[in-house]
Design goal:
single chain, mainly alpha, 66% helix, globular
Length: 486
């Protein structure tokens, strides 16, 4: 009789199972640099800086040094030590209440961001069938409303897959190729002996100081450089983060500066500053260059490429911040059950519907404000004001976390963290203050009305809602499970 401890059949002896080791998947620092460039670089902001001509080089470079690099390196340390994004970072460093303000502002900035992005889409789309509509506020407002609600409908139905793939190629389709064509046309235009519409002499490299109002448009660059904290989550995918992440960020900064500066210069070569539209400036330049080289048939093609890339990018962003807000609402009970409602596709329906209603009202600004460029600028400033609040909180939280939680393992440690945070905080605060100054190039109406409008938008949509949520918060909000409907 076989022993119960030893199998009768030797072949039945269980062989030790070799534990499978899953090798981590790494990305190169060059890959991360291109990913960062794709998420930041765009031609949409080029007309804003083209107003300054050669001075735009200086105005792009300064915010890159005092804002882009600090936020990139500081966010990398936070992301490598704490998962959960700005809500977790600020909650750990300051308090959950401040964390709510941070994640709300990250969501609220999209309320202003989408009208500016779609304002660019509307002006660009006009060059497909009627360029005169580019400066028509009623047309712009209608396009904003229609495209936004179409995007909400497609996202709610789970039909953004194809558009998301298009958006992933946006850097190539809507930025690199059109940008390269624009710069090449501009260079040939100058080489053929044509005069630049903006002075290109060395004495125009540094901006002439005529008061803060002359440099207000630099605020738009802070918005252009925002969003780097999203890419900081990839710091753990590098083999040697301490060496490779700074290298990737410096390389990405160089690429971003080239993509921003060269098209802005090309636009300034052919379109005088007093004729430049902040929304349609890119297409104004293409239209002028194509007319000069007798290539007008290419205007609609370029316009469609820019529109597809921008619209696709909007759709991929549409549900992201709102879903992040929904997760915080469900976990911490910061939002009423009404805002925790989602459909079968786990889409935060009520949050997006309320956002859409506000976006529709904001779109009326294009119809009411005499200049489309002025409406675009006002919304851009509001977007920047709200988003910079996130960075103010992030910089403070990073310093406090380094001091209070030094033992938390960080995959990447930012050099001179306190210095970076001080520089980034001062730059962000200065940009917020400068944003309240009406730009000298686009003065319309009284200064008091401008300041009041910017302040009202920042407070009503950026600061007031989280305060109200905390003030009227109920225990049942946290236990409430979001309903799911089709």
């Amino acid at each position: 009789m076989a022993s119960m401890d030893v199998p009768a059949d030797p072949s039945a002896v269980a062989k030790p199972v070799r534990a499978s080791v899953v090798k981590p998947t790494y990305i190169t620092w060059v890959t991360l640099a291109f990913m960062t460039t794709a998420s930041v670089a765009s031609l949409r902001s080029a007309p804003t800086m083209a107003v300054y001509g050669l001075t735009c080089v200086f105005l792009y470079l300064v915010p890159a040094i005092i804002f882009l690099l600090p936020q990139s390196l500081v966010a990398a340390e936070l992301a490598s030590g704490w998962t959960g994004g700005v809500f977790r970072w600020v909650s750990e460093g300051l308090s959950p209440r401040w964390g709510l303000l941070a994640v709300w502002c990250q969501f609220a900035m999209t309320i202003f961001y989408y009208p500016t992005l779609l304002g660019f889409v509307a002006s660009t789309l006009a060059y497909v069938f009627n360029p005169d509509l580019a400066d028509n506020g009623v047309y712009t407002g209608i396009v904003i409303v229609l495209v936004f609600w179409l995007g909400v409908f497609m996202s709610a139905r789970g039909g953004t897959g194809g558009i998301a793939k298009l958006a992933s190629s946006g850097l190539l389709i809507g930025t690199l190729i059109p940008g390269a064509i624009l710069v090449a046309l501009g260079v040939v235009y100058l080489l053929q002996g044509n005069d630049s519409a903006a002075p290109m002499t060395s004495d125009h490299l540094i901006p002439q100081w005529t008061g803060i109002a002359s440099l207000v448009l630099i605020v738009n660059n802070f918005l252009s450089y925002s969003g780097m904290e999203m890419n900081a989550v990839h710091v753990g995918s590098l083999k040697n983060p301490k060496k490779e992440f700074p290298r990737a960020m410096f390389f990405a900064c160089g690429l971003v500066l080239l993509i921003f500066i060269l098209p802005a210069l090309a636009i300034s070569w052919v379109i005088p500053a007093d004729q430049l539209s902040l929304t349609a400036g890119v297409m104004q330049a293409f239209d002028a260059f194509f007319a000069y080289f007798n290539l007008q048939k290419l205007v609609p093609i370029v316009a469609i490429a820019l529109v597809c890339a921008s619209a696709g990018g909007m759709l991929t962003w549409l549900a992201g911040p709102s879903k992040g807000l929904l997760l915080i609402a469900r976990k911490e009970g910061y939002l009423p059950p009404f805002f925790q409602h989602q459909n079968d596709n786990e889409f935060p329906v009520n949050i997006l519907v309320v956002q859409g209603a506000i976006t529709t009202v904001i779109a009326l600004l294009y119809a009411l404000v005499p200049s489309v460029s002025s409406a675009y600028w006002i919304l851009s400033v509001m977007t920047t004001q709200v988003y910079l609040i996130v960075y103010l909180l992030m910089f403070v939280a990073a310093v406090k976390l380094r001091r209070t939680q030094p033992n938390v393992e960080r995959g990447y440690t930012a050099p001179a963290l306190s210095f970076l945070c001080v520089i980034g905080f001062i730059a962000s605060a200065a940009a917020i203050l400068i944003g309240f100054v009406p730009p000298s190039q686009f003065e319309n109406g009284s200064d008091a009305a401008y300041i009041g409008l910017i302040l009202a938008g920042t407070v009503l949509l950026g600061l007031l809602p989280p305060w109200l949520f905390l003030k009227f918060r109920k225990p049942s909000w946290k236990s409430a499970e979001p309903e799911s409907t089709s």
